[in-house]
Design brief:
Elements: E1 4-6, H1 12-23, H2 27-30, E2 36-42, E3 51-56, E4 61-68, H3 73-77, E5 85-89, E6 92-93, H4 99-108, E7 114-120, H5 151-155, E8 157-164, E9 171-179, E10 182-191, E11 206-210, E12 213-214, H6 220-229, E13 233-240
Length: 245
């Protein structure tokens, strides 16, 4: 494979696995002129990778590096730059991932002492699956073809925008990690009468992401505090609709 660089010494078997992983990402990615690179970050267990991400199929664009933190691990290593397209992290493919799924993959990469990032320098533009009209409440139809997910499940995940005012987003929460009923997803408990949320949110809907932050594995109080700290104005949420609504 051309245009492939390694920035750390890792075992041959591991390199073979990574090469196969990159090949399986599809011809569309590999036929482009931009470099495909494998970056190995050695860090302390529990430490972040030193960059934030943007994009996902619910945002109609590939997962990319949004910002490299000045004193983080990625900045110290030097290869990963803002705008690079992320193909995988520690073997988890990021192509056709929802934004909240990509955030979970990034969060899991904090645990081991080594993170392996496969990327393309400078971005690769829109993936073929991302072309077409921008989503409103419905995800792009290409999302239903994602392997390992049923179409019905994908169609239940929607992106909505609510306007936050002095009373919040117009609904209350229940569930979360360590709730009285055990570890449960963060869900809508009650939608306040007269709020804009009535049109798009119903009790039982699972809140997957609020304003770019994943709610997965979060305590209800943490989720509530995050929403409370957001400024007034438009707030984007990713929601899994209650199948009974």
């Amino acid at each position: 494979m051309s245009a492939l660089s390694f920035v750390s010494l890792i075992p041959g078997e591991e390199l073979d696995r990574l090469l196969e992983e990159v090949r399986e990402l599809g011809d569309e990615s590999l036929q482009r002129e931009t470099d495909v690179q494998v970056v190995v970050l050695h860090k302390e267990e529990g430490a972040g990778l030193g960059f934030s991400i943007a994009g996902g199929i619910d945002q109609n664009k590939p997962v990319t590096v949004h910002k490299v933190f000045p004193h983080g691990m990625a900045a110290q290593e030097g290869t990963i730059q803002q705008g690079d397209t992320l193909l995988s992290i520690n073997g988890s493919c990021l192509r056709d991932s929802f934004h909240y799924e990509a955030l979970q993959i990034l969060r899991k990469a904090r645990l081991p002492a080594q993170a392996i990032v496969v990327l393309q320098k400078g971005g690769v533009g829109e993936h073929q699956a991302h072309r077409g009209p921008s989503p409103s409440l419905a995800l792009p139809s290409a999302a239903t073809a994602k392997q390992g997910r049923g179409a019905a499940e994908l169609n239940r995940i929607v992106t909505v925008e609510l306007n936050k005012d002095s009373s919040g987003l117009g609904f209350s929460l229940e569930g979360g990690k360590g709730s009285s009923q055990g570890d449960r997803p963060i869900t809508v408990k009650k939608v306040f009468l007269g709020s804009p949320a009535e049109a798009v949110v119903q009790p039982g809907d699972e809140i997957l992401q609020v304003h770019g932050r994943s709610m997965l594995g979060m305590m209800r109080l943490e989720a509530w505090m995050w929403i409370r700290t957001l400024p007034a104005g438009p707030v984007t949420l990713v929601i899994r609709k209650n199948p009974r609504t």
